[in-house]
Amino acid sequence: MSHQKRVAAIHDISGFGRCSLTVALPILSAAGIETAVMPTAVLSTHTGGFTGYTYRDLTEDLRPFARHWKSLGLKFDALYSGFLGSFEQLDIVGELFDDFKEQGNLIMVDPVMADNGELYKIFSPEFAGGMRKLCAKADIIIPNITEASLLVDEPYQPGPYTESYIERLLKKLGDIGPRQVVLTGTYFNEKELGAAAYDRETGNISCLFADRIEGYYHGTGDVFGSALLAALLNDFGLPQAVEIAVDYTTASIRRTLNAKTDIRFGVDFENGIPQLVKALKLG
Ligand code: PXL
User: Fold this and answer.
1) pLDDT tens-digit profile of 97-145?
2) Distance 45 CA to ligand 1 centre (A)
């Protein structure tokens, strides 16, 4: 058996609403991965659809956290960043990547900042430029189509998309620097929705779809990203890892739809963990 993989997950922790660390930690742990967390902020809920949430910024703690980890000689098989609340946090996480990058480890950036054609309210339009710089340090980035448009500085286009549009977007995203790009929210017709994956080294592009489920569910990007990383660290190739993550995310959305849960409350990824563990050939 190979050594147990270790990840550093760098996201906020939103107490309620199933996103960021409350999603990444259980999914990665269930996949057998030791998960260290660096909380960038503590909120009472995520910012998508709730008002009156608390927000405790932890920017000041990030460099001392990294320094302490470094002093312990810790090494990570992957560093996974998600929601970051300010330019300063982008800079600090960029430094952290420089400090913990090693040959063979994986830096995954989810450039959380926008969806459905709109930047999240707490960000200024300039934020996209800062996120682009962070993406340049990544081995793999996993934007949705809105984030992708911001990263390549093009106007957002609503779908359905053509294959040539998606291919061009993937290549432009690859030009930012990462070896691999996974574009979520890709669809060529109204019946299906999934993700497109591009490997710059091989030039391979693959698309994985599932039946589209109506409605907008919160936190699905974090469920997807965590499952994708879990599969990559369990030695699945990119297309297979994307397939596992698409299937797991879709099943989580379907359970949530069936339960008629408030879409702000996040998706029921918990009851899919046994299937995810099986798909990862761990159980
Ligand atoms: O899931 C993305 C996310 C993470 N963390 C916070 C958020 C969001 C999206 O809105 O608000 C605090």
Assistant:
1) 999 999 999 999 999 999 999 999 889 999 999 999 999 999 999 999 9
2) 9
Query: Who's near 281: CB < 8 A, 6+ residues apart?
Result: 234
Query: Residue 232's Cα: distance from chain center in Å?
Result: 13
| Distance in Å, CA 201 to ligand 1 centroid | 31
Kindly list the averaged pLDDT for each block of 10 residues, start to end, along the chain of length 283. 92 98 98 98 95 97 98 98 96 98 97 95 94 98 98 97 98 98 97 97 97 91 98 98 98 97 97 98 91
Predicted confidence (pLDDT) per residue in 123-135, tens digit: 999 999 999 999 9
Q: What is the pLDDT of residue 121?
A: 86
Query: Distance, CA 224 to ligand 1 centroid (Å)?
Result: 14
Please tell me whether the overall predicted TM-score, pTM, comes out greater than 0.90 for this model: yes
Distances (CA, A) of 208 to 18, 45, 89, 197, 219: 24, 31, 33, 8, 20
Give the angle 124-49-30 at the CA atoms, nearest 5°.
95
Q: Among 12, 115, 146, 216, which residue has the most ligand 1 atoms within 8 Å of its CB, making it the best to mutate?
A: 12
List residues near ligand 1 (CB under 6 A): 12, 14, 19-20, 43, 46-48, 83, 112, 120, 219, 221-222
For residues 134 and 87, the answer to whether their CB atoms sit within 8 Å is no
Q: What is the DSSP letter of 244?
A: H
How far is the centre of ligand 1, averaged over its atoms, from the C-alpha of 17 (Å)? 9
Query: What CATH fold (topology level) applies to the domain 6-279?
Result: UDP-N-acetylmuramoyl-L-alanine:D-glutamate ligase (3.40.1190)
